[in-house]
């Protein structure tokens, strides 16, 4: 999970997302809808985008059950 928001270092999160994408590793972004547009490319490469930690858990449960 890669978390974006005012309290988090955006450049670190963006770097982590880029590393995951470059390595073909799935990731989930976590941020509110106020920064959807700036993160459209990051979200586009992500497995999923979530607005709450609970949504991240739901995605992980879903993916785990699909395996």
The gist of it:
This protein has 67 residues and is mainly alpha-helical.
Please explain how this structure is put together.
This protein is mainly α and 67 residues long. It has one domain (2-66). It contains 3 helices and 3 strands, in the order βαβαβα. It has a 3-stranded parallel beta sheet with strand order 1-2-3, with helices on both faces. β2, α2 (40-45) and β3 form a beta-alpha-beta unit. The chain is globular, with a radius of gyration of 12 Å. The chain starts with a strand and ends with a helix.
What fraction of the residues are assigned to beta strands by DSSP?
Answer: 5-15%
What is the string of helix and strand elements? EHEHEH
Strand element count: 3
- Overall average pLDDT: 88
Q: What is the general shape?
A: globular
In which order are the strands of the major sheet placed? Answer: 1-2-3
Distance between the termini: 19 Å
The number of helices is: 3
Would you tell me the structural class of the helices and strands?
Answer: mainly alpha
Q: Sheet bearing the most strands, described? A: 3 strands, parallel
Helix coverage percent: 40-55%
Using the CA coordinates, give the radius of gyration.
12 Å
Tally of structural domains: 1
Low-confidence stretches: none
Helices and strands, with pairings:
Elements: E1 2-3, H1 10-23, E2 28-30, H2 40-45, E3 48-50, H3 53-66
Parallel strand pairs: 1-2, 2-3
